[in-house]
Amino acid sequence: MKYIDEFRDGELARGLAKAIAAAVNPAREYRLMEFCGGHTHAISRYGLQDLLPSNVRLIHGPGCPVCVLPIGRIDSAIALATQHDVILCTYADTLRVPASNGLSLLKAKAQGADIRMVYSCDDALRIAQDNPQREVVFFAIGFETTTPPTAAIILQAQRLQLSNFSVLCNHVLTPAAMVHIMESQNDPAAVAIDGFVGPAHVSTVIGSGQYEGFVARYQRPVVIAGFEPLDVMQAILMLIRQINDGRAEVENEFTRAVTREGNRKAQGLCEQVFELRETFDWRGLGEVPLSALKIRSEFARFDAEVRYQVGYAQVPDHKACECAAILRGHKRPADCKVFGTVCTPDHPLGACMVSSEGACAAHYTYGRFRVEVVAPVDEA
Amino acid sequence: MCLAIPARVTELLDGDRARIELGGVHKDVSIALVEEVAVGDYLIVHVGFAIGKLDPVEAEETLALFAQMAKIDPANPAPYQ
Q1: Structural domains in chain A (count)
Q2: Mind listing the pLDDT tens digit for each residue in A343-371?
Q3: Does B24 touch chain A if contact means CB atoms closer than 8 Å?
Q4: How large is the ipTM?
Q5: A347 lies in which domain range?
Q6: For chain A, what is the largest distance between any 2 Cα atoms, rounded to a whole number of angstroms?
Q7: What are phi and psi of A303, to 5 degrees?
Q8: Is residue A353 part of a domain?
Q9: Which domains does chain B have, with CATH numbers?
């Protein structure tokens, strides 16, 4: 497929690996956080860590929307479907996340709740049009990529004067989470981070300019990268060069899809429909100020939170689950006692094992039999 | 879940929609979030919405850069200084 296959070329990847090996300073470590779950998945799937010198360490970040969605939010969605008898429409990703009382959206559906999986929020709107006698709620989750489509359907619902459609908004913001990661660098459990592989499609929407303040404030380089393996390798090389030069800049490897300004039209629609929440509870990160969006009061009739008086109660993670530490980059999946034993993709205990972009699911699927290289291998 | 894919526009439809093609699969998506879409453009499609356009010139330049990087002679690289 054009613009996909070329960016997965093995020969070029090996060439980039050699360029990285030549660029690293053997006397230091490079700890690079890939913020996005999409990058985490690509790194595991294509075995990129194995192409890197042993002093370049990739740390998985919290950019997996399913992983950072707290249990209490899923409980609220289940309550809407079971107590208010609505048709609850959701992206597939959230269906299997374990919620309270041994439930998940999928189990609630099996017990008779009308929960429907949709590919697009547009489909949720269509379900509302096709079922005028029923109330339909779209369970909106995700970062800045899924937010503009949600804004578009709320505006569309307003144009169509739909009275049976609303949205349970859980959209979160990438830059705020990156700030939070840097602010918690003083935590004794934290791994020091030397640079960030910046989000791909989130940056298509918000633009590379959105990271300039972050870079100036925390003096860590950010290189925006596409989700294909060559993109990630090139971004790692660019980060290593910045670190070697003592530079901290926003650089853009993903120029084919990201501009400095981003998608102005999408930003405008989001601005029209959403406003900042003062704070939002993230799984793993806790309360993060100004890190999420809510629906503006002008659109209150499309806001399920207002319409059904949805409350939010914080629910602690399973005691044995290390998702929180893994999401902050403090621990690796294999450091968790239940990883691969009690907690597997078929029976996930924590959210990081549910989504294919979760650090645990990616490691379980592609990396769990990897041999840690303890001494450099002589290739001669 | 932020994964989006580049797909080619084959037809413009009414109501801010377009038909796209990706590896033989055809689908109708919303183009309400992007400006000035033409047949032949590559759109970045996510959850049924185009969220951006792909710049073919930049894509070629990135590939050329990879090729240039990958050609660094491993026997005689410009080493870390």
Answers
A1: 1
A2: 998 888 888 888 888 899 989 988 777 65
A3: no
A4: 0.89
A5: 323-368
A6: 72
A7: -100, 110
A8: yes
A9: 7-69 (2.30.30.140)
